[in-house]
Write the structure tokens for this entry.
Amino acid sequence: MNLDTFPAYATLTSLGTSPEDLSAPGTLTPERIASYVCRTGEFDLLYGTERINDQVLEGLQALANEMNLTEQLNAMKLGAVMNTIAGCESENRRVLHTSCRDVFHTSPEAPDATQENKDELAKLQVFLEELQNGKLVNHAGKPFTTMVQIGIGGSDLGPRAIANALAAYGLEQRRIHFISNIDPDDAATVLQDIDLATTLINVVSKSGTTLETLSNEELTRQEYLKQGLDPSKHFISVTGKGSPKDNPESYLRSFYMFDYIGGRFSATSMVGGVVLGFLLGFAQFMDFLHGAAEMDRNGEQKNIRENIPLLMALLGVWNRNFLHLESTAILPYSQALLRFTAHLQQCDMESNGKSISRQGKPLTYQTGPVIWGEPGTNGQHAFYQHLHQGTSTTHVEFIGFRKNQRKQDITTQDTSSQDKLCANLLAQSLALATGQTSDNPNRTFPGNKPNLILMADKLTPYTMGALLSLYETKIVYQGFIWNINSFDQEGVQLGKKLATDILDHLKKVKSDPDFSGQKDDPQGWAILKSARLV
Amino acid sequence: MNLDTFPAYATLTSLGTSPEDLSAPGTLTPERIASYVCRTGEFDLLYGTERINDQVLEGLQALANEMNLTEQLNAMKLGAVMNTIAGCESENRRVLHTSCRDVFHTSPEAPDATQENKDELAKLQVFLEELQNGKLVNHAGKPFTTMVQIGIGGSDLGPRAIANALAAYGLEQRRIHFISNIDPDDAATVLQDIDLATTLINVVSKSGTTLETLSNEELTRQEYLKQGLDPSKHFISVTGKGSPKDNPESYLRSFYMFDYIGGRFSATSMVGGVVLGFLLGFAQFMDFLHGAAEMDRNGEQKNIRENIPLLMALLGVWNRNFLHLESTAILPYSQALLRFTAHLQQCDMESNGKSISRQGKPLTYQTGPVIWGEPGTNGQHAFYQHLHQGTSTTHVEFIGFRKNQRKQDITTQDTSSQDKLCANLLAQSLALATGQTSDNPNRTFPGNKPNLILMADKLTPYTMGALLSLYETKIVYQGFIWNINSFDQEGVQLGKKLATDILDHLKKVKSDPDFSGQKDDPQGWAILKSARLV
């Protein structure tokens, strides 16, 4: 049933007409800041700087109860077919990315899926041990020191963001790179800087038919052949069982991904596992899974004030549907999380950028916002001007850590850089909320800009796993609230089809310079000509 | 005078109530696509996929005329004090970033400023020659092969984005890196991978007092000392004349930036010049300036259909103020432009995220949108779902090139990767505009999503300069239209002030564990405690 049919929706709509004014004197009291905190596992969520009060929280709790949100999440984890739209042709699949990390309990929630993932983990462990103990080496007996992952979308953004986040924990002498874009310069840039002889190429594609990945694999194989190296001794794959890439003649090893794991939710499957295991070693990869598994369990709490993913989902819906904000900025105060927002942009916008209900009917309310952001403090010197004094309001989610990852830090003016980083994060949250009056209109800050803070002790493999699960679960909960199927992506099909048509024109004009595609596809032909590509 | 006081505003408001429906059969004709093209220098702008018609273009032209937009731009280039707000304390400066590249004409528009910039270019040329011919080497007589730029905001994002874009043209054996974030892990990550002995550290700060840059400089100097190296033989600076960093005892060389060049508009000054010159050599850096200079002149055309920067500015305002769109995605189909959108996000949002007129009065209409984006085709596998089937509409600006930069490309299924890249770009533009009907509601695309395409032959230093100028001028024009001061950034001050207060608390609690800051700053203290930082 649609969000707007529940009793709590009416209550929240009414509360949304006169939300808390954070800039009003006396609103943002120390008591308020101390009271609106949720501590779950590794993370503290500070949400006193949201435009909420106890009544709104009661309304959000009522909404969660009325919609059976935690029950829906549990059904998903147990293997319900949730990737579906009633009455329409659709993917009709289970949604079990959580099974990838539900490997620490004696009674997992979806035993068959967890067993399949455990089998892959066992294969990964053997593979990593063989790399470590010298059993798996190149033709000259040298160890493989570099891995290049070729994949796009879910096979790229999550693993890349997490590898970046955890680079400080990388094994000595291991280096990893990614190739994703069909732009041939992407592959060329990566390949020019590495020694192919000591490199493993990990090709990641569930179907084994992704255009970009096939082209980049072929380009890379040709580079191997040019250098007199045998690709089948360097290429491995992560793919569906029985796909064209599940072939021992072409791949040294193949690891499997399953149809119940969507690309954008696949970072804890072998899609992330192989490359992160190569970088971090098996034990640290398991720490990462462990962090995710623990946060998965925390996400099952019925009390929204004890469940960060659920509370964040509801606060997002409050800002989107009741305060009518169009975008959410995710701003990590950690340079290691440079690419994490890009991953979440994918995970969130591809999941919840939808306008059809799970019953196949057009929706009459807003669904997922635009997600964007860059790390602080860098962003403070870039787009924060817009957050503070622009004419539209962006909802902000800050992420911070009390300690830094590496040993170096420096004290200037009696405080460390890490202290300065954290102080800036907290200050921005307050500044957005309270604003400032001034005689100079250009130095006036309206304030009343809602935001929240996620805080943990340190960005480690375990914390990273928890943070990933937290956002995945938030996104899943929001899909339930908006009554959409968060697990398909039909919106990518039309562009693919039109690209094929336009490529056909290009092919024909190359073989016959007199060819005019005007009749077949007048729009495609006109745009090709106007762009001077033919 | 405010935008909404001009006659053309009323005309456009009326036209905005029934804009062109791109998804209606018969709207997006080949003739329309061919007719709405503007060719300026290196770039073609295709805008048939915007929700405009001839009437709207006439309205936008009328607006440009009524507001004297090109006259305002010329006044800026001649040295008018445009960084100001009437009746308020403000920066009161000229705005002359264009003078940095107005070095190819015998009669520059602002001769004194151009002369100052020519003097810096001459210093840069000598410096680069000395690096090349071995006159400037390290203590052991070895050449400097690496440069690390320490800077943040405008001293980071533009130079970094451009260096990334032009890496394919880099001199052999020259490597560059950037350190920006106060997060100490940022510096540690960069410094661990380089040989300090053959590295130049370029510290970039106009005032010489930027917190992040000072801390990172100090951290880096200590690393030099730890390794027994003399920092004064490795550190150079780009700074204001007479700043603390203009000091030959601490810096091998100093290059100057001037108060009439804002940080986010400084990529063509020495802020970009030193690091780009090191990477590309002097001649290619001059090509980059030349491309910018030519586009600067193109941006002066009065006829909006012959002036890409002005037309893009007006189309942006059409989408923002008359069609009420909240965000603009800038999507380059070029992996080399990976960080260009982040630079534009800064340049645009810090310039035009304002709500006070140039007369110091609150505005009653929307100003700059949220700017975001990632390269295609990667984005197609990430957030394009939201663009096609989400509930809110994002304005899209595509950027593409007919040829790739590097030699490698590959033909699969009879087309090259570069062909596929371009075909995808054009297909996405059409798909967003036309949409698609279907019996399956989940496979229905509403279409009618406005977008434009910027197309050039190849991303070279010259084209990159033109592209940068194009966007800088677009942003400046939009500021004129919204009647805001695009050149200050008062919105960053409040966060800085509160961060200082919070840091003071941290300092005190470190020297006195019983200290409670409750009295001094109850909010700051409460948030510090809730985040468990004290």
Remarks:
- Chain A has three domains: 3-67+299-488, 101-290, 495-530.
- Chain A has 17 helices and 13 strands.
- The domain at 3-67+299-488 of chain A is CATH 3.40.50.10490 (Rossmann fold).
